[in-house]
Structures are given as structure tokens and as C-alpha cells.
Amino acid sequence: MTAKNQPATTAIGPSGCPVLHGFDPLSPAQVEDPGPLTAVARREAPVFFDPDLDMYVVTRHEDVVSILHDYSLFAGLPMTAYEPPAAVAELLPAGFIGRQPGMLAWLDPDEHARVRKLSQKAFTRRAAAAKEDEIRATFEATLAGFLADGEADLAIAFARKVPMRVVCAMLGIDIANETDLHRWVADTMRMMGDPNLDEPALIELAHSQAEFEAFVQKLIDERRARPLPEGDLLSDLLRSQGEENERRLDDNEIFATVVLSITAGGDTSVNLISQLTRRLLTEGDLWDRCKDDTALLEACVEEELRICNVGRLALRRATRDAVVGGIKIPAGSIVALHLWSTGHDEEVFERPEEFDPERAGLDRHLGFGRGVKFCMGAPLARLETRVALEVLLERLPSPRLMPEHELEHEPSIAIPSVKSGLLVAWDA
Question: Tell me, what's the pLDDT at 1?
Fold first, then answer.
């Protein structure tokens, strides 16, 4: 049998489904670049079974889009498979974040539509645009704190700080809490993205989540007692009112929306900002071209989402027997959609390994998903990334990557968060 680190051959798994040897989404090489493996998969086994994760992996754009649009056949899953160990079960009566009631990611379509409609006001394109000046001021103030140093790890000093500070401003959270928030978010992302956690690790994460939950509940209780004017996300959620006879957001749904806003809003944009900063500094004269061309910069954001999708595997469950790409998938099976692979599908994107912000069909990428589960925070993430890069383009004189730079990621089957390694120097 071919060794685990040599992804060139397939074997036969359940129901005649290929098994692609070498698939290991937590390995350092595939966390950094899944490209070599997914290219083999799309060519030889576009749908394959992974016995270690016990799931079917789908790699082609067409198949993934089809699944994303068919929620009756491929239902959402909780964002984690873990239950709290017995020793800490009393700490988390509703379970780990990701399994709790009210979470958008795994509500059925009707409930999802209602909760999304009532909670998305702060995340529309118009709402995001209204916050642009505030977001820019946050980014500029953060950069001013180290600009005179002449060098920094921008992943730590800039990209990781600013999205959380934006979320804090949206929710009326004191910025003094950002260290704890970063820790809680990192722990939540680890619990959602690492399928190999043992009981001691789960106990540690349960204590972390209990702290996070207490913080969020206190925030909600305080805002319920003293609501802020329109524009404060949490106050708006508490005031949310749907159409006649439409049920309002309940306590679980408000809690879940706040947790998701902090977790997703404080983490995923970090990757996009870090990746695109590195990209513009390595792709010829692209940095200089983007300085005076907002449209080009916006296209670069979309192309980065295509070529290096922040997300990796999105999970669904087959509600009944299905056939995908000619492969039989039994009812109840977990199906993993390899979102990163779809951006490199040769059948959809010409020269997929080239970074080309002027390519046709950029809107076909799945950087924010597709269908009813399309990312609610997409307008804000796009705005944050564009403004972050505009601030860097305007304020960093003669920036260059330092020789020892190398982005380091937290291993995850879901979203490998950028931790560090964007080492940049400039003329102080």
C-alpha cells in the first residue's frame, strides 16, 4: 500500500468508493498547501472516502455547488462532533459551541431563513459600508502603534488585532477584553477543527468555553437592561422584530448569533488579510498597482478567496442514499466539501494556479460558500480586508518581506487560522 505521505494512488473503499492515500488535512504540508493532493483527487478520485475521518470527500466545483444547493439531501451538521466529558458536563449543559441550539450553521432551512433575516441587519453591504470610516480609524490606530519600529509580524501586530477590534466596536465590548476574546476564539476554533482531541484537552476547552459563555451572557444581560441606540449589533438583535406573526429571536438564537459574530468575525478575516498582504508583496508590481486602484484591490480580494480559500472542509450529512460524481453515498454518511479544492478546479478556472485578479468568472469562487448557508459576514469581511490593505498600502513606505518569513497556521480541517510569520520590514 502506498505510504501515507505519497498521494499518488487510490484503493477501493466502501461501496466501491476510492480511498485516496496521502489525504491528511492536519499535516503541516497540507495545512500550508493542499494543492498537490487535491489536484490528484480531482483527476483520479474526485469523490473519495477517508477511513481516518470516516467521511466522503468531494473535491470538484460542480459537485460541491450541487451539494451546497441541495439542503434536503445534504443537511447541515453541528460544527463539532464532541460532547463535553462527564467531568465537566455540568459546566456546559447545552454542549460545546457548535452543537448549541440556535447556531445558524446547522439550523434547518426554514429556521435558518428566519434567524438570518432577523440577525443580518448589521452585516449587509450597506451596513458594512456605513462603518467604513470607523473601521479605517481602527486599522490606522493599530498600525500607528508600531509603525515607527520599521518591522513587525503583521499577522500578530495587525491582521489578528483589527478584526477583533471591529467586532468589539460592533458589540460594544471594551477593548480591554481582547486578550481573553482571542484566547476563547482560538480554543473554539481548535475544538471545531481538530478531530483528534483527547479527554484532557476537551476538559481544558470546556473550562475555556464556560468562561466565554459567562462573558457573553453577562454582555447580553447588561444590554437588555440598558440598550444602546440603533447601530449597536446586540441592542438591535434584542429589538429585532419580524413580520406579523413571525417569531422573534429567542434567547438561544441571540446568544448563538453573538458567539458566532465574535468567533467568525474575530478569526477568519485574519487569514484573508495576512494571505493577501503576503500575496501583494510577492506578485511582481501588484503592490504598487493597487495603491491607486481600488477596483484592482477589490478584485485581488476575490482572487485570494479563490486561490487560497480560508475554509477547507465544510461538512454535511446525507439524509438519504445519494450519488455524487458517480459514487454511491449511503444515508447518514458525513460528506466533506473541499472548498479549497474548488478554487483550483481546471474545469472552472483557466490557469487556476496563477494569481490573476483580472480573470473572468471570479464570482464563481466559493470563498464564502453558496446557497442558503452563504456567509452572512461576507460584506464585512470584504470591507475589512480592502480597508486593511488600503491602510498598509498608504502607510508602509517601501515594504518588503523579511527573508525568514513563513506563515504559520493552526492545524484544522475547517479553518487553519494564521498564527504568525508575516514578517515585513519597511523604511521607518
Answer: 37
The span from the CA of 263 to the CA of 375, in Å, is: 13
Extents of the domains making up the chain: 10-425
Taking the complete model, does pTM exceed 0.90, yes or no? Answer: yes
Strand 423-425 to 151-153 pairing: antiparallel
Q: What is the DSSP string of 213-228?
A: HHHHHHHHHHHHHSPP
Helix (H, G, I), strand (E, B) or coil at 19: strand
In this prediction, residue 113 carries a pLDDT of 82
Could you tell me the sign of the dihedral formed by the alpha carbons of 144, 150, 153, 154, in that order? positive
Task: Compute the distance between CA of residue 335 and CA of residue 340 in angstroms, rounded to an integer.
Answer: 15
The contacts of residue 23 (CB under 8 Å, 6+ apart) are 7, 30, 37, 41, 48, 50, 57
**Rounded to whole angstroms, how far apart are CA atoms 182 and 180?**
5
Q: Which whole-number Å values give the CA distances from 339 to 62, 368, 372, in the listed order?
A: 11, 9, 16
- Cell, residue 125: 453591504
Cell numbers linked to 159: 491582521
For 137-151, b/e burial (b = at least 16 CB within 10 A) is ebbbebbeeeeeeee
Report the chain's mean pLDDT, rounded to a whole number. 91
Residue-wise pLDDT tens digits, 183-242: 999 999 999 999 999 999 999 999 999 999 999 999 999 999 999 887 788 888 888 766
Q: Which of 100, 274, 111 is nearest to 188 (CA)?
A: 100
DSSP labels, 114-135: HHHHHH-GGGSHHHHHHTHHHH
Phi-psi domain of 94 (left: phi exceeds 0; alpha: psi -120 through 50; beta: other): alpha
Please state the three-class secondary structure of 251-276 as a single string: HHHHHHHHHHHHHHHCCHHHHHHHHH
CA end-to-end distance (rounded Å), the chain? 56
User: How high is the pLDDT of residue 151?
Assistant: 96
Q: How many CB atoms lie within 10 A of CB 189?
A: 22
| 3-state SS, residue 68 | helix
Provide the pLDDT confidence category of residue 103 given band limits of 50, 70 and 90: confident
Q: How many other CB atoms are found less than 10 A from the CB of residue 320? A: 11
Task: State the pLDDT confidence band at 244, using cuts at 50, 70 and 90.
Answer: low
Indicate the helix (H) or strand (E) that contains 424.
strand 423-425
CATH classification code of 10-425: 1.10.630.10
Q: Which three cell numbers stand for residue 148?
A: 515607527
